[in-house]
Amino acid sequence: GPSVPRRDRDEARPQYCRLMLILFKPWRHASDLRDPGQSWEDAFAQFLISCPSHLTRVMNNMQLLHECKDSRDD
């Protein structure tokens, strides 16, 4: 399947935010992920305020894998 979007690429930022919310924010219905009319980026920023530190570490490690692959390919 497709890879996890990178958080450091502006064009992929909305997709990254949406996926992180789907993976890490507790939800039962899609409407639990963001408020009506709210952007994915704003919803993710709001989630990060109360996000447990162990989850932010996982997200940071996911980004670190991208950076390691970049270094390998240079």
Describe the protein.
The chain is mostly helical and 74 residues long. The chain has one domain. Helix content is 59%, strand content 0%. It starts with 12 loop residues before the first helix and ends with a helix. The model has no long low-confidence stretch (mean pLDDT 92).
Provide a brief overview of the structure.
With 74 residues, the chain is mainly α. It has helices spanning 13-24, 40-50, 53-73.
Number of domains: 1
Beta-strand fraction estimate: under 5%
Q: How many E-type strands?
A: 0
Series of secondary-structure elements, N-terminal to C-terminal: HHH
Structural class: mainly alpha
Largest sheet: none
Structural shape: globular
Rg, nearest Å: 13 Å
Count of helix runs: 3
**Portion of residues within helices:** 55-70%
Weakly predicted, low-confidence segments: none
Query: First CA to last CA: what distance?
Result: 24 Å
